[in-house]
Write a structure and sequence with these properties.
It is a single chain. By secondary structure, the protein is mostly helical. The chain has a domain of about 50 residues. Helix 1 packs across helix 3. The longest helix has 19 residues. It is elongated.
Length: about 80
Amino acid sequence: MANPWDNDPIIEPAQTTQAPAKKAAPRKYSESAAQAALRQSDAVMNEGLKKLSAPQRKKALANYYASPTIQRLRENAGLPAV
C-alpha cells in the first residue's frame, strides 16, 4: 500500500529579501528587571493592605517579606533581606 503523501508536491519556502534573524544572546537577570518586579509586587501588596485592619496588616506584611519569592526578588535587586 502506497503512502498517500508520496504524491504531494514539495512546497518550497517563499523567498524573502530580509536577512535571517539572529538569535539573541541569553539574557541575564538584570538588576532593573528585579527592581521592577519588586516594585510591582509591592504595589499590589499595598493595595491589599488598605483593606485590612492594623493587626491583619502587620501579619500580612510579615508573611509577605518572609516569602521566598520576595526574598529572592530583593536579593536580585541588590536590597538587604528583611
